[in-house]
Amino acid sequence: MKKIVVGISGASGAIYGIRTLEVLQKLGMESHAVISNAAKQTIEYETDYTVEDVQALATSVYGQEEIGAAISSGSFKVDGMIVAPCSIKTLSAIANSFNDELITRAADVQLKERRKLVLIVRETPFNLSHLQHMTIITQMGGVILPPVPSFYHKPKTIDDIVNQTIGKALDQFEIDARLFRRWDGG
Fold first, then answer.
1. Residue 25 has what pLDDT?
2. What is the Cα 154 distance to its own chain's centre?
């Protein structure tokens, strides 16, 4: 059974983190969630979920100030981490090892332990600083996976678009959640 850390930052697109937790729960996988204070506001603003609803989807939940939580240590074995959505503030902190809160500390642990780190960066357009920070994270072994939809699977709803992005993120962990129709060459 896979063990995945899910960080939800305050960027627009809280549904990406929520859907990740929903899918991991449905698949019976262990999830460790950190929801930033800004994310709690975004969840309430953008979705019909309460913060408590989202927390109930995870196996374990930590506050962003819990810098000594299990997921802050490399000795706590997990398969990796997804930050969904990943704000530019969080991206910048991870790229610079600025570990003043749990999402960035847990992400730094994934990089130092050579585990998978997937960042669903939610910003557009990108400026040079954003791109440089993405390059740094890629050089450290992280995966930058902005929520850029494909259309070959003919999405009809926002959920179809969200599912395709989460499916691609989970592919990084060899988890096939069957969330979208894969390209088969036409």
1. 98
2. 24
